Amino acid sequence: DAGVIQSPRHEVTEMGQEVTLRCKPISGHDYLFWYRQTMMRGLELLIYFNNNVPIDDSGMPEDRFSAKMPNASFSTLKIQPSEPRDSAVYFCASSFRASGDGYTFGSGTRLTVV
Amino acid sequence: AQSVTQLDSQVPVFEEAPVELRCNYSSSVSVYLFWYVQYPNQGLQLLLKYLSGSTLVKGINGFEAEFNKSQTSFHLRKPSVHISDTAEYFCAVSGRGGATNKLIFGTGTLLAVQP
Questions:
Q1: Which residues from B are below 8 Å from A33, CB to CB?
Q2: Which helix (H) or strand (E) holds B67?
Q3: pLDDT the model gives residue A92
Q4: How large is the average pLDDT for residues A78-100?
Q5: A49 Cβ under 8 Å from any chain B Cβ
Q6: Nearest CA to B90 among B31, B49, B41, B30?
Q7: E strands along chain A, which residues?
Q8: CB of B108 within 8 Å of any CB in chain A?
Q9: In chain A, is it the N or the C terminus that has fewer CB atoms within a 10 Å radius of its CB?
Q10: For A44, which residue in chain B has the nearest alpha carbon?
Q11: How far is Cα A82 from Cα A64, in angstroms, rounded to an integer?
């Protein structure tokens, strides 16, 4: 299994532009999570899905952020418009039904908004 | 709801010395506990997990952790560290048997191994 695949690995964009981050979870995993990591705030859970349905989006910072999971093998996190304070590493993770399995993380997308 | 406290933000240690990274949790229900490691510019990798049974859990790279229910702790230990163990370590907790599958992470401890 190739693990959780995220793209792109690095993204540099100008303030005000739309940014789309992509994630392919492990086949058979029915939970998908989006995290943001910064020095100031550490790891923050933004949103998670179960069977492609958003379950908890209370961590999404504001309306500029949106996430979708159109099918079991693909999810996107979109920021529109982007701001410099959105600069962070964004991680996607997936897991199988039981919480005891833990998560498998992708390698992350390092976003820089200038 | 659950929460995790990692008491040390950074732990410096010399190579081949033992190390303990501390983790305390809070929960109103039974829990699963995890330790993850993050090497520079990489994602988080599962080190070990406690689900049930023996309170001493062994993981990869020679690490182990002990679940102490009375002290609500899950400290990570290694008897002899290597330079390659330099990384950020995260403790995480989730409620057992709940309807959700949400892991709550601590703020991380940077293990800095010096020659």
A1: 103
A2: strand B64-68
A3: 96
A4: 90
A5: no
A6: B49
A7: 5-7, 10-13, 19-24, 31-38, 42-50, 53-56, 65-71, 74-79, 88-95, 104-105, 109-113
A8: yes
A9: N
A10: B105
A11: 8
Give the distance, in angstroms, between the CA of residue A67 and the centroid of all CA atoms in the same chain. 8
Compute the nearest-CA separation of B64 from chain A (Å): 17
A42 in B contact zone (CB under 8 Å): yes
pLDDT, tens digit, for every residue of B67-111? Answer: 999 999 999 999 999 999 999 999 999 887 665 667 889 999 999
Could you read off the pLDDT of A13-48 as tens digits, one per residue? Answer: 999 999 999 999 999 999 999 999 998 888 999 999
Nearby residues of B40 by Cβ (< 8 Å), 6 or more positions away: B87
Instruction: Please check whether residue B30 touches A, CB under 8 A.
Output: no
DSSP 8-class letter at B84: G
Asked whether the beta carbons of B38 and B107 are under 8 A apart, the reply is: no
Two tokens at B68?
């102490």
Q: Which strand (E) or helix (H) includes residue B75?
A: strand B73-78
Find, in chain B, the residue whose alpha carbon is nearest to that of A34: B102
Residue appearing with tokens 């949790």:
B25
Residue A102 to residue B74: CA distance in whole angstroms: 16
